[in-house]
Design brief:
Layout (H helix, E strand, L loop, with lengths): L1 H11 L1 H100 L4 E2 L2 E10 L5 E10 L7 E13 L2 E6 H4 L4 H4 E4 L2 E9 L4 E12 L8 E8 L11
Antiparallel strand pairs: 1-2, 2-3, 3-7, 4-5, 4-6, 4-8, 8-9
Length: 244
């Protein structure tokens, strides 16, 4: 009985149901189409954005390649300049060494005939100061020469005095004492030449201004006692100053 009623209801409302079904199908198709259009639009936007990013990446890669090329060029140019500077420094050192050797040789011959640097037949060949191995230390080198080949030995003693100031007051310091020289170490007895060397550290708060080199020879064989001194400004004595 219920089935018959339902069948009659379907027959009566068939057109309405058909219209509703068709409308639903059309609406579903329209929604699907709109969804596809939205998806296509999103894909298009993403493609355009990807293309833009690729272009930006390519531009940055080109700029980086150009910078690397420029860096390589500057690096090569800098290497050439450094090499040139090193060669120039080597040439300069070589010329300075030649000048130093020439001055030393000239000084040697000047000492032979220079009366102000000799005591009897003994002469001060050279005196030099250089930086020491420790911080604030200095090394000295003093060379004496005996000119008289007939003389057996040159005898005497040396003294090295630093003149300067400490706490605003003028003062003098025994350089040999700073270097640990005993009285016996200051005396000499040699034939031909002798070298005195040592290392010292300046006293605290002492500002050196001059270095005084003194050689004393006692009287002997009818010769009077003699003494010769030479004073150098401190900045002139560094480095490797030769007495002239």
């Amino acid at each position: 009985m219920k089935l018959q009623r339902f069948t009659l209801w379907l027959v009566r409302h068939r057109q309405t149901l058909t219209l509703i079904t068709a409308t639903a199908v059309v609406a579903a198709l329209a929604g699907w189409q709109l969804g596809n259009l939205s998806l296509v639009q999103q894909q298009r936007q993403q493609s355009e954005q990807l293309l833009l990013l690729q272009q930006q990446l390519q531009q940055k890669e080109q700029a980086l390649a150009q910078q690397l090329k420029q860096t390589d060029y500057l690096t090569a140019e800098l290497a050439v300049e450094r090499n040139t500077i090193q060669l120039q420094q080597q040439d300069l050192k070589a010329e300075q060494q030649k000048l130093f050797d020439t001055r030393k040789e000239l000084a040697f011959y000047q000492k032979i005939i220079s009366p102000d640097l000799q005591a009897n037949s003994l002469i001060i060949e050279s005196f030099s100061l250089t930086k020491g191995g420790a911080v604030g230390s200095y090394k000295f080198n003093l060379v004496l020469i005996e000119q008289d080949k007939q003389k057996n030995f040159a005898k005497g003693q040396i003294s090295l005095t630093l003149h300067g100031s400490k706490q605003g007051k003028k003062t003098s310091v025994d350089l040999l004492k700073l270097a640990g020289f005993a009285k016996a170490d200051r005396r000499f007895s040699f034939k031909h030449f002798q070298i005195f060397e040592g290392e010292f550290v300046l006293p605290a708060a002492f500002s050196a201004e001059q270095v005084e080199v003194t050689v004393s020879v006692p009287a002997s064989r009818g010769l009077k006692a003699a003494k010769v001194s030479k004073t150098l400004l401190w900045h002139e004595a560094l480095p490797g100053e030769i007495l002239e």
